[in-house]
Design goal:
The chain has four helices and 56 strands. Strand 3 and strand 4 form a beta hairpin. The strands form eight sheets. It has a 30-stranded parallel β-sheet that branches. Strands 18, 19, 20, 21, 22 and 23 form a six-stranded antiparallel β-sheet that branches. A four-stranded antiparallel β-sheet has the order 1-7-3-4, with no helix packed on it. The longest helix has 35 residues. With 845 residues, it is mostly beta strands. The two termini are 47 Å apart.
Length: 845
């Protein structure tokens, strides 16, 4: 058995082939057909796919070639040896050795008798022989035989010509009759000998099913009976002799063939009977006094944490006396290292005032700004020479220093310390404040606001756009404290908000509802930053962003949302809704969500994970959506919902994973420019559901495992659905089982693979169903497993469509055209038959 390659025989249909050997990198694997390299793609860790099925009888070879001229791991002195590097180096050596072994096994072998064993393989590129003991090739033998046959034919023709000449001479020269007769007799004898010579070499090898009849062939012929595997001949006197078997004795058993690819997973077996109850476990118990007879059961142990004694095991309902767990005092140990400094003691009583000392250098300790009036000399040089103390941030007029610490009234950032405010309290002027974090003045930044018509705007940062941690606004991230108010305060600051690792409970304290501003939420990653929407929250939406006519953006990344509220069809984790004036261009409002998780947890269940209501130009990438695993046909909830008029707009969804939902992506309203690639939907009722139409939809490179229909689309124009693998579960309990359903749609381009799995007989089965006025569309695909349905089903009203390369296995029909469906051109179909009830305008090419 080969260690580094595997070979298959082409059948004209198969494009996927399994690897039977491990590898370090996919770049080390190559595929060749009949010795010529071909391009291929990876379907899984051990399956490759060629672009087109190799022809029948061709040899497909998948071979590993591990680099043997360079090291994959280069160890250096002083480096740390890791298991991964050592394994990688060992695997490179092992794989190179295996590949050398395979090459050696496939080379020409010398037998013990001094002969060469070609292993039942052909020898190519053999030169013509020169010496008597040289080997010959097929072309040289055929040329030699043709030359001999030509010489014999020439001899016969010469003899016949001589005979004719002799006969003519005999008729013309009667006087020389005797001499002519002698000459003719000699010529005839020569002709007979030539003919006999020809007869010895012109023999025919015939064959047929069964023994030959005597009327078949000529004397000297041979005959092979392909049924009995016998050879008869040579035929003599018009009769065939009995046949001789050409089947030799059975040879030795050949080497074991390569292991075939793994079969499909079988159905889950029924649950086995419940096992017998196990013996009671034994428990270590504890208490502040000795155990009583009523404490525990036989076999238990007990620790008296007051006396530090161990009792047990309990036997016969009684506890034995305790054994001390404290050993005798040991000798005094050596003196340990000095411990860390202890906590600061209580403040002592105030001493008498001492004499005033000289002015010290400026400080960078933010705690100096916590209370009271701040001396100018103790602030950084960028502050001006004014000073006063206030407790209400909004009451300041003119210039001043402010020592408003955490909780100061009207402080723009209540968790921070506030420095100097510049500019006065005048209408249409801007007021700025220096904000210092609680850790150090070295991290100061500026905030500003403007007074318009007697009302101050909200505070916002003015010097940069760096994210502010939500913990600066009081968030804890401990999973139990309600952090919703801190999130509201951080977001309305207008700055990007960073959410550090932690579990942030969003409770009833504040609703995350925002309007008229951009929002930027940045998490530390879905495994680190989690926002928990608690079951006791009175709001029905996790975060709502209501847009206006001005240019606004919404971005969110690296956050996991945990939804714990019970089922409500109208609930939404993220709700992005437009409050813009009708007709306002939606390209002004952009939403980007990436690297996020949305999950129903702790018994919760959401209606919609992301709800885009009249929100155009949205991008969602690398996100996971997971509902409650209720099983078919009970799944509820939508991953992404597109609602509103949504025109003009553009939706780009990439790398989405969705599990246990009713609909993966749904659009109950009209939308435009929906592009979705590289998606993976498992255990959904519908993969994609477009109810009211879409212009320019493209779905590509996706996998859908559904219980009803993979893609359900109505009133779509220029829909491209290509490269989709759709698994339909016939045992889901739904009455429908189909791949793609189009209704009243034009200019669609469909190329899908639909495979039905599971048991059950849904009433409606199909691969691609066109209902209503589906026109000028092209449909290609591969379909299997729906014996009661067609691969492609064109219902009444469909016209001008083209079906190409329809492959159907275990389907009711390859193509079914109902009455009223016209002008359909079918170019090539394979499998289950073609039924045309729509008239002569439907043709097969």
């Amino acid at each position: 058995m080969s260690l580094s390659y595997v070979q298959y025989s082409g059948d004209g249909e198969t494009t996927d082939f399994s690897l039977t050997f491990p590898y370090i990198s996919r770049s080390h694997v190559a595929v060749a057909v009949d010795g010529l390299p071909v391009s291929f793609s990876w379907v899984g860790q051990s399956i490759v796919r060629v672009a087109s099925a190799p022809i029948e009888g061709s040899v497909i070879e998948i071979r590993r070639s591990t680099p043997s001229t360079n090291l994959l791991v280069d160890f250096v002195d002083g480096a740390t040896l890791t298991e991964t590097d050592l394994d990688l180096s060992a695997r490179q050596n092992l794989y190179v050795a295996q590949e050398a072994t395979d090459k050696g096994n496939s080379a020409l072998n010398s037998g013990s008798d001094g002969t060469f064993d070609f292993g039942n393989r052909r020898i190519k590129n053999v030169a013509d022989p020169v010496n008597a003991q040289d080997g010959v090739n097929k072309q040289w033998v055929e040329t030699a035989m043709t030359s001999q046959l030509f010489q014999a034919t020439e001899a016969r023709n010469a003899a016949v010509s001589a005979s004719n000449t002799a006969t003519t001479k005999a008729g013309e020269a009667v006087a020389f009759r005797d001499a002519a007769q002698d000459a003719a007799s000699d010529a005839a004898l020569s002709a007979a000998e030539a003919a006999n010579y020809m007869g010895t070499i012109r023999r025919t090898l015939r064959y047929g099913a069964g023994a030959p009849l005597d009327s078949l062939g000529d004397d000297g012929d041979f005959y092979i009976d392909t049924v009995a595997n016998k050879i008869h001949g040579p035929r003599s006197g018009g009769t065939w002799p009995a046949g001789t078997s050409i089947v030799g004795p059975q040879g030795q058993q050949g080497p074991q063939g390569n292991q075939g690819p793994q079969g499909v997973k079988g159905d889950t077996g029924s649950q086995g009977p419940a096992g017998s109850a196990g013996a009671d476990g034994k428990t270590i118990r504890y208490g502040s006094s000795n155990p009583t007879g009523a404490t525990g059961v036989d076999g238990d142990w007990y620790i008296n944490v007051t006396a530090n004694t161990l009792h047990g095991p309990k036997s016969g309902g009684a506890w034995p006396a305790g054994v001390s767990l404290v050993g005798p005092q040991g000798p005094q140990g050596i003196q340990g290292n000095t411990g860390p400094q202890g906590v600061k003691g209580d403040t002592g009583s105030q001493g008498p005032q001492g004499p005033q000392g000289p002015a010290g250098p400026a400080t960078t300790d933010a705690s100096q700004l916590s209370t009271g009036t701040v001396a100018v000399a103790r602030l950084p040089s960028r502050f001006r020479d004014y000073g006063e103390a206030v407790t209400d941030f909004s009451s300041a007029v003119g210039f001043g220093y402010y020592s408003a610490g955490p909780g100061a009234t009207n402080s723009p950032f209540p968790a921070n310390y506030v420095g100097m405010v510049v500019y006065g309290d005048q209408d249409y002027l801007t007021q700025e404040a220096w904000i210092a974090g609680a850790g150090s003045l070295a991290t100061m930044y500026r905030a500003k606001r403007t007074k318009r018509g007697g009302t101050w705007d909200k505070w916002g940062r003015s010097d940069d756009n760096k994210p502010l941690s939500v913990k600066l606004f009081g968030a804890t991230g401990n999973g139990t404290t309600d952090d919703s108010l801190a999130f509201v305060t951080a977001i309305v600051s207008g700055q990007p908000v960073y959410v550090p690792p932690g579990d942030y409970l969003l409770g009833p304290a504040a609703q995350l509802w925002f309007s008229g501003q951009s929002i930027h939420l940045i998490g530390a990653g879905t495994g680190l930053t989690r926002l928990i929407f608690g079951s006791g929250n009175p709001w029905n939406e996790g975060l709502t962003w209501s847009q206006t006519d001005i240019v606004q953006t919404f971005t969110m990344s690296g956050i996991a949302w945990k939804w714990q509220k019970p089922w409500d069809v109208n609930s939404k984790i993220i709700h992005l809704v437009s409050a813009a004036t009708a007709g306002t261009a939606r390209e002004w409002r952009r939403a980007t969500i990436e690297d996020c998780h949305f999950e129903a947890s702790s018994g919760g269940e959401f209606g919609h994970a992301i709800y885009l209501n009249d929100c155009g130009w949205s991008s969602i990438r690398n996100c996971v959506f997971r509902g409650q695993n209720l099983g078919h046909p009970n799944y509820r909830g939508l991953g992404i919902s597109i609602a509103g008029s949504n025109t003009p707009c553009e939706f780009n969804f990439t790398s989405l994973w969705m599990y246990s939902l009713n609909v993966g992506v749904g659009a109950p309203s009209y939308c435009e420019g929906l592009t979705m690639t590289q998606f993976h939907f498992v255990n959904v009722t519908f993969g994609v559901y477009i109810a009211q139409g879409c212009l320019g939809m493209m779905l590509s490179d996706g996998h859908i495992n559904c219980g009803h229909t993979g893609v359900w689309a109505a009133t779509c124009t220029q829909a491209v659905i290509r490269g989709l693998l759709i698994y339909v579960d016939k045992g889901s309990g739904h009455n429908w089982a189909g791949g793609v359903r189009l209704a009243s749609s034009n200019y669609a381009d469909i190329d899908v693979t639909v495979i039905a799995v599971g048991s059950g007989v849904p009433a409606t089965q199909f691969g691609v169903l066109c209902t209503g006025n589906v026109a000028y569309s092209t449909i290609k695909g591969r379909f299997s497993g729906l014996p009661n349905g067609p691969a492609v089903w064109l219902q009444s009203g469909s016209y001008g469509n083209t079906l190409m390369g329809i492959i159907a296995v275990t389907m009711g029909w390859s193509v079914l055209i109902d009455s009223g469906a016209t002008d359909t051109k079918t170019i090539g179909f394979f499998g289950s038959g073609y039924t045309n009830n729509g008239g002569a305008s439907n043709t097969v090419v």
